[in-house]
Design goal:
The structure is a single chain. The chain is built from four helices and five strands; from the N terminus they run βββββαααα. With about 130 residues, the chain is α+β, with helices and mostly antiparallel strands. The chain has one domain (about 5-130). The protein has a three-stranded antiparallel β-sheet. A two-stranded antiparallel sheet has the order 3-4. Helix 1 packs antiparallel against helix 3 and helix 3 packs antiparallel against helix 4. The relative contact order is 0.13.
């Protein structure tokens, strides 16, 4: 079964979203069989969804695992030195879809729509993390 994500609410730096701090370390297996360990203290907003879309795509819920790992991979610029920027960002985005399908297999259409949004708009967050 899945490991548990333990977070505590943290005051947001702006009024744009809620922030959550990982209270315990969290490990996830990626699609290529490697694992990533997100350390306690890591801060995420989970899914960065505009407020007007929350009724369709809530920022917190079934996708927490996928969003947490995706945020962490972006913040690390995971595998960028090895793969280059485009391929590393695509790998991180692909992990979002892989993990979303892993936890919410019955709704692959919604998972794919969220993945497309990550692909379209993630470039700005990836470059911001540099």
């Amino acid at each position: 079964m899945f490991s548990k994500i333990v977070v505590v609410y943290r005051e947001a730096p702006t009024d744009k979203s809620d922030w959550w701090e990982l209270h315990e370390p969290f490990e996830e297996i990626l699609s290529d069989g490697s694992s990533v360990l997100v350390n306690a203290g890591y801060v995420t907003d989970f899914a960065s969804v505009p407020r007007w879309l929350w009724s369709l795509f809530p920022p917190i819920g079934k996708y927490n695992r996928a969003a947490l790992v995706h945020d962490y991979l972006y913040d690390l610029q995971y595998r960028q030195k090895e793969l280059g920027e485009k391929a590393a960002r695509k790998f991180a985005d692909d992990q979002f879809l892989y993990l979303a399908n892993k936890v919410n297999d019955e709704n692959k259409f919604t998972n794919y729509v969220m993945y497309l949004m990550v692909r379209l708009f993630g470039k700005y967050a990836w470059r911001k993390a540099k």
